[in-house]
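Researcher: Structure for this, please.
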Amino acid sequence: MHEASLLPPGYFTAGVEQTDPVIAQAIDREKARTRGVIELIASENIVSRAVLDVQGSILTNKTVEGYPGKRYHAGAVNVDVVERTAIERACRLFGCRFANVQPHSGSQANHAVLHALAEPGDTILSMDLNAGGHLSHGASANFSGKWFKVVNYGVGAGDGLIDYDQVVDLARKHKPKVVIAGGSAYPRALDFAAFRRAADAGGAKLLVDMAHFAGLVAGGAHEQPFPHADIVTTTTYKSLRGPRGALILWNDEGLRKRIDNAVFPGLQGTPSLQIVAAKAVALGEALRPEFADYAAAVLAHARALAGRLQRHGFDLVGGGTDTPLMLVDLRAKGLTGAPAAQSLERAGLIANMNPIPSDTVDLKVMSGLRFGVSGATTRGLVVADFEAIGDLIAEVLDGLRESPSDNSAAEGRVRASVGEIAARFPTYA
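Model: Predicted structure, token format:
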């Protein structure tokens, strides 16, 4: 007599459309939404079908803790190949000796580095959040701001640029354990040599967070952080065009055990092996010659959009961009970030509100808008399209300034134009 199956019918064969229509419909609606809009959120991109497929692969089922060849669970022979491949490709792409490919996010990668290099109560030196820094670099709302004494450098009130002499002086004065270069909304290229001088002046390790411009580094459109940096972190999405996750990169053999132990068992348990595999696929794509063309296009498109916005009278923090992103200061237009982003979304242009240096507006509103071009570049848009998008952004925001209570006329006109652009650049079938 056979026991009845404990599995629901179709457990190994039925897709989500059959088993969970609520989630299936939400996914279908998201596909439809993305087809009809232009995504300009700086932290988003569009992965290849190969990356998408790997994330839904059988690797989801496997649990292993530890590192290749040193696992706490049996049956790791195939996933060890996957992780070693991801490590080798990361090192080759960014010109370093060691890589940890397990961090689930950029924040966790940064937390692991701080865990490896500093003790609670030690000093770290990083960019102020409003100046373009990142939550995981010591913001008061983040655990990094609660565990460490945080000293911030900022940007000039007039030019929006980092004063590297100030960074050196602060490092010399406060003797931080870690100096952090990089952030979430600083649009200009970083002077890694100047940050190295600051780290040396304070006897610190230098961490470069290149999350937003890693794709440009990989494609040769931005300076490489090594050899100036001691450790580099990056997300694998954004301009790298991979899955959601992160990497830690370094060269010093003496840091190997400290960093690996900080990730596991310090902060994480088992890695998401399907994501590690997707990282390997994306890194392999970035090693191909055509990725250099993509990186060059991202930079050209960012500068085209930034220039067009400036022609329409918008102030850009830092005066322009050397990265995939730009930050618009809306104060001269009499606008704030939240209503501006909402109006743009109704017009089919997706961006995010963002603080600007010395912002005094409530964090639920903010005074800036952040735009990025990585995803739309992947989709196939060219310089002329980004110039047209700059015109459309200006039309919406100028309409909002003139009719703050009802901008539907401008939003409707722009929505139609956005739909025409989007229709020319389909993504997944």
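Researcher: Any notable elements?
Model: The longest strand covers residues 123-127. The mean pLDDT is 96.
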